[in-house]
Design a protein that fits this description.
alpha+beta; 7-stranded antiparallel β-sheet; globular; 367 residues; 7 strands; 12 helices; single chain
Length: 367
């Protein structure tokens, strides 16, 4: 009996260890790790500045927040979230379970938000999820390492569209999978729609819906071709592609994406592309925008966000909650910051990705 009790204890300990990533607060830590880093560095800054004068503290805070802000970058940025298919996140087929993809997406998208939009998050902004489209290409085996490559691909007056690619560096061949082919392709890969979540954060539906309704097969084929035709630049194996539809909120107020991007220093680069697709040779020699060489609209941002220039975080909050509407049409600096080549690429990407939004909205009308 004593031996049995001892073995039982070891068995329970092993089970708990294998499921440690499902413990309380572990998910929260994985999601908010980038924000925890920002909070921690801010706390360290406060401790270091405790004996400084008020003006010196403001200067230190300015340097700290500017170092976090991606001044001069474009919104079409990417980041990589790395993870692995643990026991608690895998299903009875010994593959990463469907629900675990959504779990990984939470952390991956938040990592991109912290890198691209620190001023927006520090001001108290949130980025709610309206819906996610999943297209499963290949399974991810249990214990396999994978990456989620996250890119902000398009936006309109309200929504942003984030594309995530689940990839692995080495293809794992599964001889027992009836769908596997010698060329590595998957016939008739299923398409799943995850319906928008409610205000409580609970999914409103989880039933797979065929991509042919309400979207036409032609539109679906075009979209799939656009998303899946390009191979990963490093030859990595593609497992799943997702497209998430999100928006920016300050309280109950929806903030246009262009405003949020420009406030965080994102902009069209100096070597701008003209409407006819020709790049000016004069612009090629110009130095890229950065904190040392800020874009033209950066002075406008400083006047709102920086105490050294008459602004503050509170003024930024007021601006994001609707203050941008008071800026006359011809003086909206964020439109200029998001113009040129950025606008061309935004429209091109939006034309493809907006098909998903229309499809999900149409699905809600089906009785």
């Amino acid at each position: 009996m004593e031996l049995l009790a001892h073995l039982t204890k070891w068995l329970l300990a092993i089970i708990l260890l294998l499921n440690i990533r499902a413990f309380p607060t572990v998910w929260h830590f994985r999601i908010f790790r980038p924000l925890i880093y920002i909070w921690t560095s801010h706390l360290v800054l406060k401790v270091k500045s405790i004996f400084l004068s008020k003006s010196a503290k403001e200067e230190a805070f300015e340097r700290w927040i500017d170092a976090l802000t991606p001044v001069g970058a474009t919104p079409f940025q990417s980041t990589v979230f790395r993870s692995w298919a643990s026991f608690d996140e895998s299903d009875y087929n010994f593959h990463l379970s469907n629900s675990s993809y959504a779990k990984a997406l939470d952390a991956a998208r938040f990592k991109l938000a912290c890198q691209l939009l620190p001023k927006f998050l520090i001001a108290g902004g949130v980025i709610p999820l309206a819906g996610t489209h999943f297209q499963f290409v290949r399974e991810i085996p249990i214990l396999a390492k994978y990456e989620v490559r996250v890119t902000l691909e398009a936006w309109d007056e309200k929504w942003i569209y984030i594309v995530c690619r689940f990839v692995s560096k080495r293809q794992v061949k599964n001889k027992h999978s009836p769908r596997s082919k010698r060329d590595g392709t998957e016939p008739n890969s299923p398409t799943f729609f995850h319906a928008p979540i409610s205000s409580s954060g609970v999914s409103m539906a989880s039933t797979p819906v065929e991509g042919t309704k309400p979207m036409s097969p032609t539109d679906m084929d075009k979209l799939a071709s656009r998303l899946l035709a390009t191979e990963e630049p490093d030859g990595a194996t593609l497992h799943t592609i997702t497209v998430s539809q999100m928006c920016f909120k300050m309280g109950r107020i929806t903030v246009p994406p262009a405003v949020v991007f420009a406030v965080n220093g994102l902009c069209v680069p100096p070597p701008s592309v003209s409407l006819d697709g020709i790049t000016s040779s004069d612009n090629l020699a110009r130095e890229p925008y950065s904190l040392a060489n800020p874009p033209p609209h950066w002075d406008k941002v400083k006047a709102i966000t920086s105490k050294l220039h008459g602004g503050s975080i509170r003024k930024l909050q007021t601006f994001l909650k609707g203050g941008w509407k008071e800026v006359p049409e011809g003086e909206r600096w964020w439109e200029e910051a998001m113009g040129g080549a950025l606008e061309l690429r935004r429209k091109e990407n939006l034309e493809a990705l907006d098909i998903l939004r229309k499809g999900m909205e149409g699905a809600r009308k089906i009785n």
